Amino acid sequence: MWESDSDTGSRSASSDGLRRRQGWDPEAESLASQMDELDEVLAEEEDGCPLPSTPEDQHLLDAEMAEVLKAGVLSDEIDLGALAHNAAEQAEEFVRKVWEASWNVCHFRHLPRWLQDNDYLHKGHRPPLPSFSACFASIFRIHTETGNIWTHLLGCVAFIGVAIYFLSRPSIEIQMQEKMIFGVFFIGAIVCLGFSFAYHTLYCHSEMVGKLFSKLDYCGIALLIMGSFVPWLYYSFYCHYRPKIIYLSVVVVLGILSIIVSLWDRFSEPRLRPLRAGVFMGFGLSGIVPAIHYGITEGWFSQVSKASLGWLVLMGLLYILGAMFYALRVPERWFPGKCDIWFQSHQIFHVLVIVAAFVHYHGISELASYRVTVGECSMPPSSIAF
Ligand SMILES: [Zn+2]
């Protein structure tokens, strides 16, 4: 596992030599790139992966901790008087804390199987961090998840701020009913972004915690889609009671179905990435049916249609674009190992989700203010059918 400096040095030198010879030997080019890869591996193995990635590593860690304890006791570094009470446990806890604080990022191939998700991201992965405090402390370190964590943490805080502002308006400005309808959307957005932040922070804790939070992450997406549909359907079919109830019921059923699929144990497997993108995209695109219905009944180019459908189309395009980045893993697919920390597909997907959610908020705000200016329905809602 640990290569000597001289060994690494000689390999680098041979790689450099091959690079210089590229001009006259075409075969050298591929050999040089292989050498580069080898250099990368060796460089990676030099700083290694200090926390256990595999059961064998766990044994190494245990043995090493026992050594540290023994050395500490023998050299009087550990005060036996102070540690009289549960001495071994306290010292072990101390050593574990030192290990937790001093972890290094890992190469993809050093990760245990349950942490191997995107093989186009080569370096900078967190090792398993089997403590919640270490996972939360990792928010402030640079690794493959830093961008994912912060995009949705900041998005979540932003939506909490908007929700507090909106819900605290005096009721002359925004009525209670409006607040409740928008509240459903805010809950969807805040829960989705919050669960996503929690997932990206904690999934390296252990296989069990990772699985649990990935399920919550997917449930959050389903809740965001459901929460986005509610105010849009409510205001679009404001005076059309029956279609409103039918579409809202369909959205709830589809939402529950996608939550059930999300809770399926194998749904988070890397090879099911396109299925995941497909399930949520299909759920979102089911909005095409009420949108066409709406366009036909209200007229495609009426003022209210523009307010209702214009922003909706933009939001849909942003979500679809985000799902494409997510499923295709672009740009890291084209530049493997070059987007390990920044500009990877998942970060772009996260940013597009936040932008789409804000676009939707703007769209439903316009729709609601239009509804308020038009006034009450001209006929009692119960007498209005399709
Ligand atoms: Zn995510």
UniProtKB/TrEMBL annotation:
Residues 1-57 are annotated as: Disordered. One of its GO terms (cellular component) is plasma membrane. The chain crosses the membrane at residues 149-168, 180-200, 220-238, 245-264, 276-296, 308-329, 341-361. GO terms for molecular function: metal ion binding; signaling receptor activity. GO terms for biological process: adiponectin-activated signaling pathway. Keywords: Membrane, Metal-binding, Transmembrane, Transmembrane helix, Zinc. The keyword Membrane applies. Zn(2+) binds at residues 200, 346, 350. InterPro entries: AdipoR/HlyIII-related. The keyword ATP-binding does not apply. Its main location: membrane. It is found in: Membrane. Residues 7-16 have a biased composition (Low complexity). Residues 36-48 have a biased composition (Acidic residues). It is a multi-pass membrane protein. Belongs to the ADIPOR family. This is Adiponectin receptor 2. It comes from Chrysodeixis includens. The lineage of its organism: Eukaryota, Metazoa, Ecdysozoa, Arthropoda, Hexapoda.
